[in-house]
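Can you give me the bound-state structure? Components:
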Amino acid sequence: MAAAGAAKVTAAAAATAVFRSNQELTRLARSGQLAAARRLFDSMPRRNTVTYNAMLSALARNGRIDEARALFDGMPRRNAVSWNAMIAAFSDHGRVADARSLFDEMPNRDDFSWTLMVSCYARAGELEIARDVLDRMPGDKCAACYNAMISGYAKNGRFDDAVKLLKEMPTPDLVSWNSALAGLTQSGQMVRAGQFFDEMVEKDLVSWNLMLEGFVRAGDLDGASTFFARIESPNVVSWVTLLNGYCRAGKIDDARELFDKMPERNIVAWNVMLEGYVRLSRMEEACNLFEEMPDKNSISWTSIVSGLVRAGKLQEAKDLLDQMPFNCVAAKTALMHGYLQRKMVGEARQIFDGIEVRDTVCWNTMLSGYVQCGMLEEAMLLFQRMPNTDTVSWNTMIAGYAQGGQMRKAVGIFKKMNRRNTVSWNSVISGFVQNGLFVDALHHFMLMRRDTKRADWSTYASCLSACANLAALQVGRQFHSLLVRSGHINDSFAGNALISTYAKCGRILEAKQIFDEMIVKDIVSWNSLIDGYALNGHGTEAISVFLEMKANNIRPDEVTLVGILSACSRAGFIDEGLKYFNSMEKEYSLKPVAEHYACMADMLGRAGRLNEAFELVQGMQIQPNAGVWGALLGACRLHKNDELARLAAEKLFELEPRKTSNYVLLSNISAEAGKWDEAEKTRASIKEKGVHKPPGLAGSS
DNA sequence: TATGCGTAGT
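Here's the bound-state model for the whole set.
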């Protein structure tokens, strides 16, 4: 008897212990402490179904869906909560099909299960299927299930359907009304939202906060402040919403005043204030606030680190990261990004290697760092090692190979992609253009339309550039009308590309017309028109556009001066050209770069002032590039100066050893001067140096 | 003590 009594006591004590551990496990799960939750779970001598369910949701919350599934499959007993938690895990990560098959297998579905499925489809944008699930739900439908559907309609812009269902359902609750209201406030329809809010049968603080957030989102700070003042007893969410409004409007000092007035500050409030300072690069205040924060989570750390990185304080960011008490991938990725922008690949890689659990953003950052540094082999190795790739990863590789001149590899990656988006198409199309394969670019535009992917300004800019280079006026005109039809005609990008296209096709009047019709002209628009006149030999017009530009208070940049100098060069305006060139630094604070020298060499050379041109090149502060020597060589041919030609050509051979046309040009110059031996020698050196053809555009390396 | 629908911060 006594033994039985003792056993009963022991069993009760054990049950209490499990109960207590479960409470702790739940707490850990909710605060995102997965590692601690796992340790506790593993150390528990006895577990019940609640224990497993808590662990399951801890895994799901941290995105460990497949581990959660393994735990689910291995559970000794499963109840409805276990099934629902697993369905929710799939639903939260967009795995609609997995959620559905579990729902179909589930023995006894309850209200939670049906609500989860409605919500799952609604969030995936599958509103008709969601509605079908709701309609099939047997017996009395719970309010939550209706609410999931109302929310789905509202978030997808179907406000009328949301209200219709709200009126149809037997017992709408606060969430029903707020779900419908959220549809209006979150899509910026504040007038309708205000009417709906006034007519609401039931409302609570969430309703008021939804309205407040709507004003902030619409950028109506006065409306927000006035509305806030009407809230009877605002809670932390109300305060934070208004605080965020001030921060986003850049009124950081007003924000700080509000922050100091807050009756209660939680971690979200601190983070909003911190991000406000960081956004305005007020890093000293940001750092002070960060020090004062009673709690810091991964958002706080990411904010401060990316702020320091943006301010160029990489060492401070790194020192701070070394003190981070937990592993925050986003903060470390921000530092990696900073290193990579400065081409400090080794430092970035060190951080990367030190991260135990990386997300796809982290992998993509390292990947694009390698690409930007031209380290394509390392990029490919990393790409192949990635546990998960997304469209960004693939697009990064495509753009990398395209910029590296290896179009064959770029296209190879592109063809293997499962889901191509507009950026993927743009990367190959602009790659073809950059590598001079204009016909391929236009061909891929046709394929893109067949793939029903939307073209954007970048697509059109690349295609127009292809047309310009092919001088394909008719195709260019077709793109022009496509731009009008797709509504992109008012983008300054598109307009600028059109100006260049018409100008390069010799239709300078049409180029000017586009320019005149453009609503928003930027510096590129002016430069494109000046370039266009230059290209067509209209020196006077180019200069008059330049003067008009200055009269409009647009500051000329380096590109403008290239245009002006080449206009003077082609029109033979030597004195004008020299005047502009010599006044670059004084009048426009622009240091001449190689392109300017090339224009000058061309200008003086064409006019037969070869020695002056040569002296100018020799006196350059910077290293002359191939363009400069090329201009000189061209002028030498024009004026039959084979001695200077040889000198310029030798420099060109150093800079562009594989470019056959340089050798051919020099050989012709020698031949024209009657120096047949020299000509033959130059031709022979083509074979000698192993120069066969221009560098392979298709990148067969 | 574990699972669903509406509000704030990357």
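A couple of observations. Chain A has 42 helices and no strands. The longest helix of chain A spans residues 2-30.
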